[in-house]
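Render AraC-type DNA-binding protein in 3D.
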Amino acid sequence: MRVGTFTVDADSTGVGRETWEPFIDTWNDRMGDLYPLPEFSADTADGFQGTMHSVTLSDTAINEMWTSSPISTQAVGSLEQDQVRLYAGMRGTVALQEPHDRGGDASVTAGTYFMHHVVAENHFHTTPGVGARIFIFPGDAMRPLVAGKPRLGRADSPAAQILMAHTTMVQRVATGLGPAAAEAARNALIELAKGLVLDHFDDREPVFAPALAQAAKDLADAHLTDADLSPAAVADRLHVSVRTLQRAFAALDESFAGYIRRRRLEEAAAALTHPASRLSVSQAAAIWQFTDSSHFIRSFKKRFQVTPAEFARRKR
Protein backbone atom coordinates (compact mmCIF):
# COMPACT_ATOMS: atom_id res chain seq x y z
CA MET A 1 0.00 0.00 0.00
CA ARG A 2 1.48 3.34 -0.98
CA VAL A 3 1.35 6.00 1.70
CA GLY A 4 2.89 9.40 1.28
CA THR A 5 2.70 13.04 2.11
CA PHE A 6 4.32 16.05 0.51
CA THR A 7 4.02 19.81 0.85
CA VAL A 8 5.08 22.74 -1.28
CA ASP A 9 5.18 26.23 0.18
CA ALA A 10 5.94 29.34 -1.85
CA ASP A 11 7.16 31.12 1.28
CA SER A 12 10.06 28.69 1.56
CA THR A 13 10.68 27.57 -2.03
CA GLY A 14 9.87 30.70 -4.01
CA VAL A 15 6.95 32.10 -5.92
CA GLY A 16 5.93 30.71 -9.32
CA ARG A 17 7.37 27.73 -11.15
CA GLU A 18 9.98 27.08 -8.45
CA THR A 19 7.12 25.88 -6.27
CA TRP A 20 4.49 24.83 -8.79
CA GLU A 21 6.55 22.47 -10.93
CA PRO A 22 7.91 20.40 -7.99
CA PHE A 23 4.32 19.89 -6.83
CA ILE A 24 3.24 18.68 -10.28
CA ASP A 25 6.31 16.43 -10.63
CA THR A 26 5.77 14.85 -7.22
CA TRP A 27 2.07 14.30 -7.86
CA ASN A 28 2.77 12.65 -11.20
CA ASP A 29 5.34 10.41 -9.54
CA ARG A 30 3.03 9.43 -6.68
CA MET A 31 -0.46 9.39 -8.19
CA GLY A 32 -0.18 10.25 -11.87
CA ASP A 33 -0.82 6.71 -13.02
CA LEU A 34 -4.14 6.61 -11.16
CA TYR A 35 -5.25 10.23 -11.35
CA PRO A 36 -3.48 12.24 -14.06
CA LEU A 37 -3.59 16.01 -13.66
CA PRO A 38 -4.93 18.40 -16.28
CA GLU A 39 -2.63 20.95 -17.88
CA PHE A 40 -2.60 24.19 -15.90
CA SER A 41 -2.38 27.66 -17.37
CA ALA A 42 0.95 29.44 -17.70
CA ASP A 43 -0.32 32.16 -15.37
CA THR A 44 -0.95 29.52 -12.71
CA ALA A 45 2.60 28.19 -12.88
CA ASP A 46 4.33 31.56 -13.26
CA GLY A 47 2.43 33.33 -10.51
CA PHE A 48 1.73 30.55 -7.98
CA GLN A 49 1.91 31.76 -4.42
CA GLY A 50 0.64 29.63 -1.57
CA THR A 51 0.86 26.12 -0.18
CA MET A 52 -0.24 22.69 -1.40
CA HIS A 53 -0.28 19.71 0.94
CA SER A 54 -1.09 16.21 -0.32
CA VAL A 55 -1.61 12.92 1.48
CA THR A 56 -1.98 9.69 -0.46
CA LEU A 57 -3.38 6.47 1.00
CA SER A 58 -3.26 3.80 -1.68
CA ASP A 59 -5.96 4.81 -4.20
CA THR A 60 -7.25 7.74 -2.13
CA ALA A 61 -5.82 11.25 -1.85
CA ILE A 62 -6.37 14.43 0.15
CA ASN A 63 -5.09 17.69 -1.32
CA GLU A 64 -5.27 20.91 0.65
CA MET A 65 -4.46 24.24 -0.95
CA TRP A 66 -4.20 27.74 0.43
CA THR A 67 -3.23 30.20 -2.26
CA SER A 68 -3.18 33.95 -2.75
CA SER A 69 -2.85 33.52 -6.53
CA PRO A 70 -5.61 32.07 -8.75
CA ILE A 71 -5.36 28.59 -10.27
CA SER A 72 -6.88 27.61 -13.62
CA THR A 73 -6.65 24.80 -16.13
CA GLN A 74 -5.49 25.31 -19.69
CA ALA A 75 -6.32 21.93 -21.22
CA VAL A 76 -7.97 18.74 -20.01
CA GLY A 77 -7.49 15.22 -21.21
CA SER A 78 -10.13 13.19 -23.03
CA LEU A 79 -9.41 9.86 -21.33
CA GLU A 80 -12.32 8.20 -19.57
CA GLN A 81 -12.00 8.28 -15.80
CA ASP A 82 -13.74 6.66 -12.88
CA GLN A 83 -13.19 8.57 -9.67
CA VAL A 84 -15.21 10.54 -7.16
CA ARG A 85 -14.03 14.00 -6.09
CA LEU A 86 -15.11 15.92 -3.05
CA TYR A 87 -14.38 19.64 -2.87
CA ALA A 88 -14.68 21.28 0.56
CA GLY A 89 -14.48 25.06 0.45
CA MET A 90 -12.76 26.96 3.26
CA ARG A 91 -12.02 30.32 1.58
CA GLY A 92 -12.73 31.90 -1.79
CA THR A 93 -14.36 29.98 -4.64
CA VAL A 94 -13.52 26.97 -6.79
CA ALA A 95 -15.54 27.11 -10.04
CA LEU A 96 -15.99 23.84 -11.95
CA GLN A 97 -17.05 23.81 -15.60
CA GLU A 98 -19.53 21.02 -16.35
CA PRO A 99 -18.05 18.74 -13.70
CA HIS A 100 -20.37 15.78 -14.12
CA ASP A 101 -22.09 13.67 -16.71
CA ARG A 102 -25.36 15.58 -16.33
CA GLY A 103 -23.90 18.91 -17.47
CA GLY A 104 -23.90 22.31 -15.80
CA ASP A 105 -21.36 24.28 -13.80
CA ALA A 106 -20.76 24.29 -10.05
CA SER A 107 -19.20 26.73 -7.59
CA VAL A 108 -17.73 25.63 -4.28
CA THR A 109 -17.62 28.53 -1.84
CA ALA A 110 -16.43 28.75 1.76
CA GLY A 111 -18.53 26.56 4.02
CA THR A 112 -19.89 24.35 1.23
CA TYR A 113 -18.94 21.04 -0.34
CA PHE A 114 -19.47 19.50 -3.77
CA MET A 115 -19.07 15.81 -4.60
CA HIS A 116 -19.34 14.33 -8.08
CA HIS A 117 -18.44 11.30 -10.18
CA VAL A 118 -15.65 12.13 -12.62
CA VAL A 119 -15.98 10.41 -15.99
CA ALA A 120 -13.85 12.94 -17.90
CA GLU A 121 -11.57 15.74 -16.71
CA ASN A 122 -13.18 19.16 -16.51
CA HIS A 123 -11.89 22.72 -16.51
CA PHE A 124 -11.82 24.67 -13.28
CA HIS A 125 -10.53 27.95 -11.92
CA THR A 126 -10.31 29.55 -8.52
CA THR A 127 -10.53 33.05 -7.17
CA PRO A 128 -7.38 34.56 -5.67
CA GLY A 129 -7.10 33.74 -2.00
CA VAL A 130 -8.68 30.30 -2.13
CA GLY A 131 -8.58 27.60 0.54
CA ALA A 132 -9.99 24.16 -0.17
CA ARG A 133 -9.61 20.47 0.45
CA ILE A 134 -9.96 18.23 -2.60
CA PHE A 135 -10.50 14.52 -1.95
CA ILE A 136 -10.10 11.87 -4.64
CA PHE A 137 -11.72 8.47 -4.11
CA PRO A 138 -11.77 5.41 -6.38
CA GLY A 139 -14.98 5.13 -8.37
CA ASP A 140 -15.81 1.67 -7.07
CA ALA A 141 -16.01 2.93 -3.50
CA MET A 142 -18.40 5.86 -4.01
CA ARG A 143 -19.84 5.78 -7.53
CA PRO A 144 -23.36 4.53 -6.67
CA LEU A 145 -23.96 7.52 -4.38
CA VAL A 146 -23.12 10.31 -6.82
CA ALA A 147 -23.10 8.98 -10.41
CA GLY A 148 -25.47 11.24 -12.34
CA LYS A 149 -26.51 13.01 -9.14
CA PRO A 150 -23.73 15.26 -7.81
CA ARG A 151 -24.15 16.50 -4.25
CA LEU A 152 -23.84 20.06 -2.98
CA GLY A 153 -24.22 20.83 0.71
CA ARG A 154 -23.04 22.63 3.81
CA ALA A 155 -19.56 21.82 5.12
CA ASP A 156 -20.63 22.52 8.70
CA SER A 157 -23.13 19.65 8.95
CA PRO A 158 -22.42 17.09 11.70
CA ALA A 159 -21.26 14.50 9.15
CA ALA A 160 -19.00 17.07 7.47
CA GLN A 161 -17.44 18.13 10.77
CA ILE A 162 -16.59 14.53 11.65
CA LEU A 163 -15.13 13.88 8.18
CA MET A 164 -12.99 17.03 8.40
CA ALA A 165 -11.79 16.12 11.89
CA HIS A 166 -10.70 12.69 10.64
CA THR A 167 -9.00 14.35 7.66
CA THR A 168 -6.99 16.62 9.94
CA MET A 169 -5.83 13.62 11.96
CA VAL A 170 -4.82 11.73 8.81
CA GLN A 171 -2.86 14.73 7.53
CA ARG A 172 -1.04 15.00 10.86
CA VAL A 173 -0.02 11.35 11.26
CA ALA A 174 0.14 9.99 7.70
CA THR A 175 3.91 9.73 7.51
CA GLY A 176 4.02 7.49 10.58
CA LEU A 177 1.27 5.08 9.54
CA GLY A 178 2.09 1.44 8.89
CA PRO A 179 0.23 -0.52 6.19
CA ALA A 180 -2.60 -1.73 8.46
CA ALA A 181 -3.17 1.69 10.04
CA ALA A 182 -3.05 3.39 6.63
CA GLU A 183 -5.63 0.95 5.30
CA ALA A 184 -7.89 1.65 8.29
CA ALA A 185 -7.47 5.40 7.85
CA ARG A 186 -8.30 5.13 4.16
CA ASN A 187 -11.40 2.99 4.79
CA ALA A 188 -12.66 5.33 7.51
CA LEU A 189 -12.16 8.28 5.17
CA ILE A 190 -14.32 6.63 2.52
CA GLU A 191 -17.05 5.60 4.96
CA LEU A 192 -17.20 9.09 6.47
CA ALA A 193 -17.44 10.59 2.97
CA LYS A 194 -20.39 8.28 2.34
CA GLY A 195 -21.86 9.50 5.60
CA LEU A 196 -21.52 13.06 4.33
CA VAL A 197 -23.70 12.26 1.31
CA LEU A 198 -26.20 10.26 3.37
CA ASP A 199 -26.04 12.77 6.25
CA HIS A 200 -25.52 9.87 8.62
CA PHE A 201 -22.74 7.60 9.82
CA ASP A 202 -22.77 4.57 12.08
CA ASP A 203 -21.83 6.09 15.43
CA ARG A 204 -21.56 2.60 16.94
CA GLU A 205 -18.67 1.72 14.64
CA PRO A 206 -15.46 1.81 16.74
CA VAL A 207 -13.30 2.90 13.79
CA PHE A 208 -15.11 6.27 13.77
CA ALA A 209 -14.54 6.99 17.48
CA PRO A 210 -11.27 8.94 17.00
CA ALA A 211 -12.88 11.12 14.32
CA LEU A 212 -15.90 11.79 16.54
CA ALA A 213 -13.66 12.67 19.49
CA GLN A 214 -11.60 15.04 17.33
CA ALA A 215 -14.73 16.72 15.95
CA ALA A 216 -15.95 17.25 19.51
CA LYS A 217 -12.58 18.75 20.49
CA ASP A 218 -12.67 21.09 17.48
CA LEU A 219 -16.13 22.31 18.43
CA ALA A 220 -15.13 22.77 22.06
CA ASP A 221 -11.99 24.73 21.12
CA ALA A 222 -14.13 27.13 19.08
CA HIS A 223 -16.54 27.77 21.97
CA LEU A 224 -14.48 27.67 25.16
CA THR A 225 -15.89 30.97 26.41
CA ASP A 226 -19.53 29.99 25.76
CA ALA A 227 -21.62 29.48 28.88
CA ASP A 228 -23.61 26.68 27.29
CA LEU A 229 -20.62 24.60 26.17
CA SER A 230 -21.11 21.08 27.54
CA PRO A 231 -20.89 17.45 26.44
CA ALA A 232 -24.65 17.46 25.88
CA ALA A 233 -24.53 20.58 23.70
CA VAL A 234 -21.68 19.23 21.57
CA ALA A 235 -23.33 15.81 21.23
CA ASP A 236 -26.45 17.57 20.00
CA ARG A 237 -24.42 19.56 17.44
CA LEU A 238 -22.88 16.33 16.12
CA HIS A 239 -26.20 14.46 16.12
CA VAL A 240 -25.02 11.73 18.50
CA SER A 241 -25.97 10.80 22.03
CA VAL A 242 -23.94 11.86 25.05
CA ARG A 243 -23.29 8.16 25.67
CA THR A 244 -21.84 7.79 22.17
CA LEU A 245 -19.63 10.82 22.75
CA GLN A 246 -18.44 9.37 26.05
CA ARG A 247 -17.60 6.09 24.31
CA ALA A 248 -15.51 8.00 21.76
CA PHE A 249 -13.40 9.44 24.60
CA ALA A 250 -13.19 6.15 26.52
CA ALA A 251 -9.84 5.21 24.95
CA LEU A 252 -8.33 8.62 25.70
CA ASP A 253 -6.67 9.80 28.89
CA GLU A 254 -9.46 12.21 29.82
CA SER A 255 -13.21 12.60 29.55
CA PHE A 256 -14.74 15.18 27.26
CA ALA A 257 -15.76 17.29 30.26
CA GLY A 258 -12.15 17.03 31.45
CA TYR A 259 -10.93 18.14 28.03
CA ILE A 260 -13.15 21.24 28.13
CA ARG A 261 -11.92 22.12 31.63
CA ARG A 262 -8.26 21.64 30.68
CA ARG A 263 -8.53 23.73 27.52
CA ARG A 264 -10.29 26.53 29.37
CA LEU A 265 -7.52 26.58 31.95
CA GLU A 266 -4.84 26.58 29.24
CA GLU A 267 -6.48 29.48 27.43
CA ALA A 268 -6.92 31.39 30.67
CA ALA A 269 -3.24 30.82 31.52
CA ALA A 270 -2.17 32.08 28.10
CA ALA A 271 -4.32 35.20 28.46
CA LEU A 272 -3.09 35.96 31.98
CA THR A 273 0.55 35.79 30.87
CA HIS A 274 0.21 37.76 27.64
CA PRO A 275 2.62 40.73 27.73
CA ALA A 276 -0.19 43.21 27.13
CA SER A 277 -2.66 41.55 29.48
CA ARG A 278 -4.42 43.54 32.18
CA LEU A 279 -6.76 40.65 32.93
CA SER A 280 -7.62 40.03 36.57
CA VAL A 281 -8.15 36.58 38.08
CA SER A 282 -11.86 37.25 38.58
CA GLN A 283 -12.22 38.39 34.96
CA ALA A 284 -10.47 35.26 33.71
CA ALA A 285 -12.77 33.11 35.84
CA ALA A 286 -15.82 34.78 34.32
CA ILE A 287 -14.58 34.64 30.72
CA TRP A 288 -13.79 30.93 30.85
CA GLN A 289 -17.00 30.04 32.63
CA PHE A 290 -15.86 29.08 36.13
CA THR A 291 -18.56 29.57 38.75
CA ASP A 292 -16.45 31.96 40.82
CA SER A 293 -12.85 33.03 41.47
CA SER A 294 -12.34 30.45 44.20
CA HIS A 295 -13.36 27.61 41.91
CA PHE A 296 -11.08 28.95 39.18
CA ILE A 297 -8.10 29.29 41.55
CA ARG A 298 -8.55 25.75 42.90
CA SER A 299 -8.83 24.27 39.40
CA PHE A 300 -5.91 26.33 38.14
CA LYS A 301 -3.66 25.30 41.02
CA LYS A 302 -4.55 21.64 40.50
CA ARG A 303 -3.55 21.95 36.85
CA PHE A 304 -0.43 24.15 37.13
CA GLN A 305 0.59 23.63 40.80
CA VAL A 306 0.48 27.39 41.48
CA THR A 307 -2.23 30.02 41.74
CA PRO A 308 -3.13 32.11 38.67
CA ALA A 309 -1.50 35.20 40.17
CA GLU A 310 1.75 33.38 40.93
CA PHE A 311 1.72 31.72 37.50
CA ALA A 312 1.37 35.11 35.80
CA ARG A 313 4.19 36.64 37.89
CA ARG A 314 6.58 33.80 37.06
CA LYS A 315 5.86 33.86 33.33
CA ARG A 316 6.20 37.61 33.08
